[in-house]
Amino acid sequence: MTRRELTCPETGPIVLDARSLAACIRVSVADTDHAHVTISTPDTAGASHDAVTTARLEHTAGRLTVRLDDQGAAISRVTIVRSGNRVSMTTLTADRDLCIVGGRVIIDGVEITPGTATVVGTSPVTIDAVLPPGSLVHLTTQSGDITLHGAYPEVRAQSVSGDITAERADHASVQTTSGDIRITTAGHAVTNTVSGDTDIDRTDTLTANSVSGDIHVREAADLVSAATASGDITVHHTGPVPITRTVTGRVRTTANTR
Question: Quick check: 23 and 40 in contact, CB under 8 A?
Answer without folding.
Answer: no
